[in-house]
Amino acid sequence: MKKILLTCSLIVLTLLTATAQDVTGKWKTIDDETGEAKSIVEIYKQNGKVYGKIVEILNPAKRNVKCDKCPGEDKNKPVLGLVIIKGLEKDGDEYNDGTIMDPNNGKVYKCYIELDGPNKLDVRGYIGFSLLGRTQTWTRVD
Question: Which pairing describes strands 133-141 and 25-30: parallel, antiparallel, or unpaired?
Fold first, then answer.
């Protein structure tokens, strides 16, 4: 009986650890230049790839802003609800081979994301190769 209880406990602990180490969920974006919290992005999986959309804008004055500099079908869409991370694929501990768009200037960058513990997410946007870019650290929202 003790072996069964121990085995069940280990399985539950493993499952809890595995789900806590997932990139999906809601994340507070922090501007790497000002240190200010800007928005909440929900990261989700769809058809085996990872996407992220803005589900909340923290500055009340910017909640109704449209993305006038965004390319293609995103042009003039509301920033709230905009999918800014597209097509990331899992590669070991990180997700890459996708893009991230900056709704402030409409620029699209290559992107990779990686967990830094269960509640921090390093998000890197870059041009060409990853040395030419910048990283923001987002924090998980309950």
Answer: antiparallel
